[in-house]
Amino acid sequence: MQESRENSKNSKSPIDDLISQRRQKMKELREKGVDPYPNGFDATHCISDILKKGRELEGKAVSAHGRIMSMRKMGKASFIHIQDMTGRVQAYLKRDDVGSENYMIFKLLDIGDFVGLSGKMFYTKTGELTIHVESLLPLAKSLRPLPEKWHGLKDVETRYRQRYVDLIVNEDVKEVFRLRSGIVQAIRKFLDEKDYLEVETPMMQSIAGGATAKPFITHHESLDMDLYLRIAPELYLKRLVVGGIEKVYEINRNFRNEGISTKHNPEFTMLEVYNAYTDYTSMMELCESLFNFITKELLGKPEVQSREKTINLKTPWPRVSLYDILKEKTGKDFSEVDGRDDMAKLADSLGVKYSEDNGEHKIMEHIFDKFVQPTLVDPVFIVDYPAKHSPLAKPKKDNPKIAQRFELFINGQEIANAYSELNDPIQQRAKMEEQMKDRELKKEGGVVDDDYIRALEYGMPPCSGLGIGVDRLVMLFTGSASIRDVILFPQMKKESD
RNA sequence: GCGCCAUUAGCUCAAUCGGUAGAGCAACUGCCUCUUAAGCAGAAGGUUGUGGGUUCGAUUCCCUCAUGGCGUACCA
Fold this sequence. Notes:
Elements (H helix, E strand, L loop, with lengths): L1 H9 L3 H18 L15 H7 L7 E14 L2 E8 L2 E8 H4 L1 H8 L6 E10 L5 E12 L15 H6 L1 H7 L1 H23 L3 E2 L5 E2 L11 E4 L4 E5 L4 H9 L4 E9 L11 E10 L3 H20 L3 E3 L4 E3 L6 E3 H9 L8 H12 L9 H12 L8 E4 L21 E6 L2 E8 L4 H18 L7 H9 L4 E7 H9 L19
Parallel strand pairs: 3-5, 6-10, 14-15
Antiparallel strand pairs: 1-2, 1-4, 2-3, 4-5, 7-9, 8-9, 10-11, 11-18, 12-13, 15-16, 16-17, 17-18
The structure holds one RNA strand.
């Protein structure tokens, strides 16, 4: 005790003063025989319930619990607002009604404390539904002051690092994550009703396959082996299709050891769906009906608002060939391009930057990103991607240079990626080996997934697969500009002292 | 990785030409039994992100570092 007093004397800062004031009140509560951290409190209503019932509850006894968000003390009577997960309601405490001992206890409470209240509902002179408190029970003492009641918490860094504070004081933040939960729930409901089986496949993989991205590496001690956090679940889900799970999906985290931006978090949530005996065109239909379902369940109309644009989600969505739209937006014919150098020349003529180790396809992507992607506001399926850079996709029968693949763009963002899955084990091995050469160039390492090829050798039915970035989907539906606004605890650097 | 910007009280924000930091909310002490951004009176709260430099004097100018934001690059 003495020691800590000395410490606080040495490192005395204003916030420490505020905390010790509250600790002092906590001590005084204990001295009055009040446990500052009791077990629980039975409420008759949640707050939204009370607000919803309104007049119906007038004069009736209720009890509710929540966090004190504001206090207006007027000597021997006070008004406070308490907030629970569902809303905020006013309460009125009068000394003569709660008793002077209870009122003393109340005076030891602070904004931020949790409290259980019982009393009869009434309307104040100004017409606000209010609990006329007859008894109160402190439920948990808060030792740190909350941000300002009017301006809330604005500092972005604190909002992300201390999301709990953000959630307490910024109601719209809670709304975003409610909607996120609703979207994920809707996806599950939609797929479950269509008899898809939800599964969980390994997060730790000995080969990081299914996409090209730098993985996170970890190590298993007793097996003495390196493992990768998955960059995609794709190869495992298709193993399940081999195993006879013909309709399967997974909603789970992927991990990519790459740059962080408003559109990239190292761990992000991915939906992958596979449906046997269908091709990629059926995934377009699935995409459309999934969006219809989500908008119907959550929005009521097929429209979302981005910063200034209204995005019309009404289906069906156009299907546009990659080369057609490139030609439309740049005036150049990309189907004529022959090789990496030719593509580089084209990029130069369009003033698009690229780096020396970018391949032909990568350069084309840069051109697409600059000239086409920002113009794709309403949903559009871009089709006819080059087969060479879609190693897990089945090529078109009439043109093996083109993959049976589409990407869905909305509001200038890639939302989904899908293809007819390549199920020819010989071709698949050849493509993986081909890809390894590229990887060697990039010094990224990687091996052919022999077990995956073995699975294909047992036979995988014709099959289509779809991947949707759930975080970006939520960004779209919530009008969020940054992925950090739809991830509760986004990745941050270590906090400095 | 690079560029630009930001960092001041627990929170939200001020501070003129470089002259030694102010307010509101919260907290504290009084008063106040229908308030709601309650009110009134009083008092308190700061190593101006970090470390250096220039200067008689730095929140202010210069450099380093840290963290964050935006842009850009990377990312099938």
